[in-house]
Structure formats: structure tokens, C-alpha cells
Design brief:
Enzyme class: transferase
Subunit structure: Monomer.
Distance between the termini: 7 Å
Low-confidence stretches: none
Subcellular location: Cytoplasm
InterPro entries: Phosphoglycerate_kinase, Phosphoglycerate_kinase_N, Phosphoglycerate_kinase_sf
Radius of gyration: 23 Å
Mean pLDDT: 96
Strand content: 15-25%
Organism: Asticcacaulis aquaticus
Structural class: alpha/beta
Shape: elongated
Helix content: 25-40%
Strand order of the largest sheet: 5-6-4-1-7-8
Length: 397
């Protein structure tokens, strides 16, 4: 899709840019434990400041469910953001009405204000037109820089974008460009890696990807369901046996659409779910007892996967290949991640990854910084991969 960006803007002196950001940061004892989401917003804020705009930041925090919950106020974010920006960030006790308007009136050109939690109003999650209009009344333009919230049709992500000239922020643009490079208009051949525990949580994803990719590697507990569907023993492993027919249908659809499915050909099994548990590697088809549980893919599987990756130009990754949190069952994921990093750094591969477990796995492998792009958007990233339309993105078009 086409959308306007901050590059389409010129002089904004004295005008107000209403900017949707994601400041739903992790907190412990009132302290931000990871300020990544604040840092991600800085390029957009600073670019608007240079254009002379007054910057009004809209964000949510936690789930107050349309009521004012003091413990879920965004006020604690203002000092942290001030420190990162090197300038004082004003705070408004409400995101609409006189409180917000008064703060914005006092703000100089290039000034920044953080408005109170939009979810303190029931109209936010209901995408109430009247609430969206109240937000729009504060600004001259709207900028969405929160891809992570773009799958929600809320007033601050979708409603207000219909009422003001709308633009994608710098973070939003990077995310959309990366996802387009991975799925929209990728350089072929393309491969996907999809892992995780359950097929049932990623049915839409698998069905969409087999129609778009040249190869798809399935790992983690999900792979067990496919192996079981093919008649292989999985012992006492996590397996959704009731999805046997669904797994077979996906395999048939992949074959019909020319997508090669890569499943484990060897398995790392153990009888205990704990770090450094006694384990053994067996070939697919080996006898497994009821106590044997598959916790990772074996070296033969990794070798095959590396070979396919080496012959691919684009990779999209969602989910680990094994129980990466427990060594040595992190081996397949770590080895695959390091190989992807090598291919990416050498310019042979465009690698886009996303999803909570995926980010954690790549950080564990020490390769997150070497990927072309790593999305922290979670649900929005997954829905995009599933081929679903994201309201917050559509509203920018």
C-alpha cells in the first residue's frame, strides 16, 4: 500500500502533530525496566521538532478498561522520555478536553507533551467517533508511529486518522517497509521459519504462508503435530492429535502451491523437562516410549535447513525450533539463527523476524542485531503475516 510519511511534510511551525506511540513499557516498582519503546519513538519526535511542530504524544498503558486508574497513569514516562530527548516533556492530566488543550497552548514550537493514558476513556477501545473527534480537535496532523497497536481499530489508532491528514512515523515506516520486503514484494526464493508450541495458534499464519513462500520450515511443538499426522511416533511430546486432518490439509495445500515443507528428520528427546537433562538424538521413525519427549530438532535437520536458507534470498521467521529456554534444547534455534545472521551480514539474505518468543530466541543466540529487521510488535506482526488487514495501517492509505 502507499502511505504518506514525514518526508511529505515541510514547515509545521506552530502546528500540532498528534502522534500515536507505543509507550506500554515494562515496569517494576515504578521503574521502567526496558526503554526500547521510548527510544524507538525518538526519530519521529525529533523530526517533527525540527519541522517546528508542537508534538502531542498519545499512548496507552496497561488495561484500565475505560476508567481512570491512577496506578496506570503515563505520568512516570515523561521524566524518562525527557532524559532521552534532552528536553523537558510536558504532561497533560487528560488526553482530551481542557487539560490537554491548555498544555498544548503553552507548548512552544518544537515542544513535546505526553498526554494521559487514552484507555482511561471507554471511547478509545470502542473507537467512538465522538472521542476520536475530541482527540482530533487537539491537532493539525496525525502521525501513527505505533505499528504494535495497528491491529486494533481504536480511536487513537484508526478513528482519528480519518479526521486529520495522516502520516506514518519513522518507526511505522521501517516496519511496513521491512514487512513488504519479507512478504509483500520479496526477492525470491523465499523461506519461512515458523515454530512455537501449538499449531492451533498459527493456523491462519500457516495457511497464508504456504501460498506465498517457496519453502516453510516448521519447528517446535508444532512440528510434532505434523509428524504425528504423517504417522510418526512422537512419544509423550506436546502434540495436538485432534488436528491431524488439519495438518494433512496444510501439507496438501503447500504441495499444490509449490511450497516445500521442511519438517525435522532427526529429533532430540529427553524424559525430563529441565535444563541439561539427559537426552539422545534419534532419527525420525525411531521407537519412542511414552516418557520420551521431543524438545529440539537434531543436527541433520539443521543441516538441511541451512542448505535451503543458503539458496534463499528472503527469510521471515516467527517462533523457535525447540525449547530454546532450556539448554541444550536451544541448539537448533541458535545454530539456525547464527547461520541466518551470517547470510544476512554478507548481503546474501534479507531476514525479517518478529514475535515475542522469536525476539527472545534471537537475543539468546546473540543475533538479533544482525537481522535485517526484528519486529517487536507481537500481535500486529502475526496478523500481518496471516494476511489480515490492519486497521491502523489501512487508515493511513
Amino acid at each position: 500500500m502507499t502511505f504518506k510519511t514525514l518526508d511529505d511534510l515541510s514547515d509545521l511551525n506552530g502546528k500540532t502533530a498528534l502522534v500515536r506511540v507505543d509507550f506500554n513499557v515494562p515496569v517494576e516498582d515504578g521503574r521502567i525496566t526496558d526503554d526500547t519503546r521510548l527510544k524507538v519513538a525518538l526519530p519521529t519526535i525529533e523530526k517533527l521538532q525540527k519541522l517546528g511542530a508542537k508534538v502531542a504524544l498519545l499512548a496507552h498503558f496497561d488495561r484500565p478498561k475505560g476508567k481512570v486508574v491512577p496506578e496506570m497513569s503515563l505520568k512516570f514516562v515523561a521524566p524518562a522520555l525527557s532524559a532521552l530527548l534532552g528536553t523537558t516533556v510536558a504532561f497533560a492530566d487528560d488526553c482530551v478536553g481542557d487539560d490537554a488543550a491548555d498544555v498544548m497552548k503553552l507548548l512552544p514550537a518544537g515542544g513535546v507533551a505526553l498526554l494521559e493514558n487514552v484507555r482511561f476513556h471507554a471511547g478509545e477501545e470502542k473507537n467512538d467517533p465522538a472521542f476520536a473527534q475530541q482527540l482530533a480537535d487537539l491537532g493539525d496532523i496525525y502521525v501513527n508511529d505505533a505499528f504494535s497497536a495497528a491491529h486494533r481499530a481504536h480511536a487513537s489508532t484508526e478513528g482519528v486518522a480519518r479526521l486529520l491528514p495522516a502520516y506514518a512515523g519513522e518507526s511505522m515506516r521501517r516496519e511496513l517497509d521491512a514487512l513488504n520486503a519479507a512478504l509483500g514484494a520479496p526477492v525470491k526464493p523465499t523461506i519461512g521459519i515458523v515454530g512455537g508450541s501449538k499449531v492451533s495458534t498459527k493456523l491462519d499464519l500457516l495457511k497464508n504462508l504456504v501460498g506465498k513462500l517457496d519453502a516453510l520450515a516448521i519447528g517446535g511443538g508444532m512440528a510434532n503435530t505434523f509428524l504425528y499426522a504423517q504417522g510418526h511416533e512422537v512419544g509423550g511430546s506436546l502434540c495436538e492429535k485432534d488436528l491431524k486432518d488439519t495438518a494433512l490439509d496444510i501439507l496438501k495445500e503447500a504441495e499444490a502451491k509449490g511450497c516445500k515443507i521442511l519438517l525435522p528428520v532427526d529429533l532430540v528427546v529427553a524424559t525430563e523437562f529441565k535444563a541439561h537433562a539427559a537426552n539422545r538424538t534419534v532419527d525420525l521413525g525411531a521407537d519412542l516410549s511414552a516418557d520420551d519427549k521431543i524438545f529440539d530438532a537434531g543436527p541433520k535437520t539443521v543441516a538441511i535447513l541451512k542448505d535451503v536458507i543458503a539458496n534463499s534470498k528472503t527469510l521471515i521467521w516467527n517462533g523457535p525450533l525447540g525449547v530454546f529456554e532450556l539448554p541444550p534444547f536451544d541448539t537448533a534455534t541458535v545454530e539456525a539463527a547464527k547461520f541466518v545472521a551470517e547470510q544476512t551480514k554478507s548481503g546474501k539474505l534479507v531476514a525479517v523476524a518478529g514475535g515475542g518468543d522469536t525476539v527472545a530466541a534471537l537475543n539468546h543466540a546473540g543475533t538479533a542485531a544482525d537481522m535485517t529487521f526484528v519486529s517487536t510488535a507481537g500481535g500486529a506482526f502475526l496478523e500481518w503475516m496471516e494476511g489480515k488487514e490492519l486497521p491502523g495501517v489501512k487508515a493511513l492509505g
